[in-house]
Structure formats: C-alpha cells, structure tokens
Amino acid sequence: MIRIPAFLLALAVLSCGSSRDLSPSERAKLSPGLLALLTEEQAPDELYDVTLRPDGVREYGVIIRSAVPEELRAQGIRIQSTFGDVLTARVTREELRSLLALPSVRSVEQGSTNQLHH
Is the pTM above the cut of 0.85? Predict the structure, then answer.
C-alpha cells in the first residue's frame, strides 16, 4: 500500500477544481483574451481594460451578449450600459466565471479603453 502525505492529497484535490477548468460551452462563450485571463496564471494587465476596486481586487471591462440583464444583476454583476442585447460591465475573474454558467449569456468579449491622441 502506498501512503501519500495529506498535504499532497489536498493539493491534488484543490487543483482539480481550479478556475482553469472550463467546460467546452464556457470556453465557446469567451473571446480569446478572456480565455487566457481565466486559464493562465499570470495574464499581464496591459492586455486588458483593468482597474482596481477599493478593496484591491482587479476588475475587467467586458462586453456581454445577453437578452436578460436581470439574470446578470441577480448574480451581482454591475451592468454599466445596455444597448439591445449588448451589455457592458466591469467584473472580477470570479464574476466572469459565474457569468459563463448563465443560460442567457451567449458571449463575453474583452473590453478596451480608448485614448485621445494629440
């Protein structure tokens, strides 16, 4: 019988449920940039429209396709604007992951910032 130290067993169990595990349907909803954000350990902030919340948590600008904004609001997603079925929001990585499980969400794309050039 092989004995595995408890901490190694706990590490293996925790890694199985990491945020990197996305279902095929969840992956299909994400733009490539957001897929990298959820699956890579260190996604550089320069690639995203990222800000810090007052508590220090990073939030990312996203564009969501959903005809049911109330479903997103019920999940605690703060929608910034709506135009038909196109919604904009700022979400944490955890909120982004929860968006993917909602049936009304068809896609989530990476937002961007525009800057004036003089």
Answer: no
